[in-house]
Amino acid sequence: MTQITLGIIGGGQLGSMLAIAAKKLNIKTIIFCDDIDAPAQNFCNKFISGNYNDKEKIVEFVNQVDFVTYEFENIPYETLNEINKIKPVLPKPSVNRLIQHRLAEKDFINKLNIRTTRYVSIEKKKDIEALEDFLPGILKTSTLGYDGKGQYPITSIEEFDSLNIDFSKEYILEKLVKLKKEISVIITRFNNHKYEIYEPIENIHEDQILKHSKIPAEINEKIFNQSREWAMLIAEELKYTGTLCVEFFIDRNDNLYVNEIAPRVHNSGHLTINAYNINQFENHIRAVCGLEQIPLKKLSNAKMINLIGDQISHYRKSSKLNNNEFLFDYLKKDIKKKRKMGHITTLI
Question: Are residues 196 and 342 in the same domain?
Fold first, then answer.
């Protein structure tokens, strides 16, 4: 059997971990990224740098691979669609187009009779004046934005004036729920009704960036089952191939809401590297490359902490860890204030 070559678009920490998982499965990886210093080049077989709309570079990349996947969702749909005409892109580009638009994503989820927070489209300043019912809320750009970028918490209509909102962009206003906790479910769909699904992960955010994750999540059996069922329903409706993350809110009355869908491997699933027999990255590779589906087994409970910005410096100087602790340095050259630089997983 000839060796499979997988193309990965994006060269951050998720691209790095996908390349590491592929190597274990004897799959070559070629990474295409617009960042010439992307850390994933330390782990792949070949690295190509270029803009995501550079047709010549894209063709060079596509001609060398059998399948294409991606590590983040903010890639132009047109680029993925053109690639898909030549080589299979998984998950398919139409999934990415849907998830790139928060309003379309929320409408899609609601049509499945799955609960989300209340939301409304904001296209011009006048739309805001009748929206007291949606406050306190979070104003988000309908497209782009992650780790809190393009998001504005708002408690009163008067606050809109101080934000200097650029109304050439489209926004969505989401009503805040009285939050008890946040969880996520990581699921890998291989094909029709064939899944591997990880147990729900409990998450804590700081400054709208994920800080802590742990399994097991402290949730009741109803939420445990409902979150997994909703994740399966979403993956099936999307005809998804690969690993997907569904993020949830739980309110003080133990009602479950879908917050958003990430059509890729996810930060909250990093603990699966040490806690499961097959991690989220390997399962993604197996699904998109058509490899064997292996039943999941949890090996240990675990917790993970993200190392943000300068927090990595201490560990780069001294990596003394306990036997149950595992450090992952993403090898990013520039240390920036809100940048994810690494993580530590502790088995418990």
Answer: yes
Tell me, yes or no, whether 308 lies in a domain: yes
Q: What is the pLDDT of residue 156?
A: 81
* Strand blocks (E) in the chain: 5-9, 28-33, 46-49, 67-70, 119-122, 137-141, 151-154, 171-175, 179-191, 194-197, 201-206, 209-215, 242-251, 256-262, 302-308, 325-329, 340-347
User: What's the CATH code of the domain at 136?
Assistant: 3.30.1490.20
pTM, to two decimals: 0.94
Place of tokens 């996520």: 184
Which DSSP state fits 147?
T
User: In the listed set 73, 89, 105, which residue is the last one of a domain according to the structure?
Assistant: 89
Average pLDDT along the chain, 348 residues, taken 10 residues at a time = 92 98 98 96 97 94 98 92 96 94 95 95 74 84 67 80 75 92 98 93 94 98 98 97 98 97 97 98 98 97 97 89 96 93 97
| CB count in 10 Å sphere of residue 334 | 7
CA neighbours within 13 Å on the CB side: how many for 263?
Answer: 28
* Claim to verify: residue 32 and residue 148 sit in the same structural domain: no
β-partners of residue 103 are none
Residue closest to 99 by CA, chosen among 232, 238, 203, 227: 238
Angle at 233 between CA 269 and CA 84, to 5 degrees: 75
